[in-house]
Design brief:
With 248 residues, this protein is of the alpha+beta class. It has a single domain, classed as Creatinase/methionine aminopeptidase superfamily (Creatine Amidinohydrolase, Alpha-Beta Complex), CATH 3.90.230. It is 28% helix and 25% strand. The protein has a 5-stranded antiparallel sheet with strand order 8-7-9-14-15. A hairpin with a 2-residue loop joins strand 4 and strand 5. It is globular, with a radius of gyration of 17 Å. The two termini are 27 Å apart. Bound molecules: 2-amino-4-trifluoromethylsulfanyl-butyric acid (MF3) and cobalt (II) ion.
């Protein structure tokens, strides 16, 4: 069942989204060669608290940190660690969920660590472009897989792969609500979009094959072929016109 949010619920999510977006933007200055992924976690935890909100990933299904930090061939759910030092040329995906009085916003970005290769930058840019091509269909009347199809077309058109094992999702008082939003598929399928739906749309893409493995920490998903991955996500509200982006 897809939950349509009330004006009050949307307002709480708007505030959560604003904080999520601010923190992800601030990370651009923090992320540099020599910092650890735990430094990202500490910064996020402190920042979310400052706004009187909660980093919702901590404790979710036993997840041990305030944010996910996934480096290079890690796709999603990388666990911050003081031992994981970022080096010049790495890329790191940061995925953050902020809870404001029981209502959540979810967003992710992939950051360059110092100077990165042209190919890595192309991968990062493609994830972002795929998101925006996807949300051209995030409007009342279209169906969920119209978004999916547009994302896949952009990603594969650039010669990259779409991760299949993780999908976008509805979001609200639960981090993961209906519907699921795959980043691939034929258009014209799935639920019809309606005003007041709130969706986390999140292309997760890779250089090569989309197959992933989960490491022995039970969380970190890596590409099997070792190709690098990028992630770009925002929480959006469906309207009868342009979608409202809560986490920019
Ligand atoms: N934020 C992720 C998503 O995009 C979920 C992270 S799982 C967690 O859906 F356990 F880390 F919270
Ligand atoms: Co998400």
């Amino acid at each position: 069942m897809i939950i349509i949010k009330s004006k009050q619920e949307l307002d709480l999510m708007r505030e959560a989204g604003k904080v999520t977006g601010i923190i992800l933007n601030e990370l651009k200055d923090l992320i540099k060669p020599g910092i650890s992924t735990l430094d990202i976690d500490k910064f996020v935890e402190k920042s979310v608290k400052k706004y009187g909100m909660i980093a919702a990933e901590k404790g979710y299904c036993g997840y041990p940190a305030s944010v996910c930090t996934s480096v290079n061939e890690e796709v999603v759910h990388g666990i911050p660690s003081k031992k994981r030092i970022l080096r010049e040329g790495d890329i790191v995906s940061v995925d953050l969920v902020v809870d404001n009085q029981g209502y959540m916003a979810d967003a992710a970005r992939t950051y360059a660590v110092g100077k990165i290769s042209e190919r890595a930058q192309h991968l990062i840019d493609t994830a972002e472009k795929a998101f925006f091509d996807g949300i051209a269909f995030a409007k009342e009347g279209y169906r969920v897989s119209d978004i999916s199809h547009a994302i896949q077309k952009t990603v594969e058109g650039e010669g990259f792969g779409v991760i299949r094992d993780f999908v976008g999702h509805g979001i609200g008082s639960d981090m993961h609500e209906d519907p699921q939003i795959p980043n691939y598929g034929k258009p014209g399928k799935g639920p019809r979009l309606q005003s007041g739906m709130t969706l986390a749309i999140e292309p997760m893409i890779c250089e090569g094959d989309w197959e992933v493995d989960v490491l022995l920490d039970d969380w970190t998903a890596v590409t099997v072929d070792g190709g690098w991955a990028a992630h770009y996500e925002n929480t959006v509200v469906i309207t009868d016109g342009e979608p409202e982006l809560l986490t920019l």
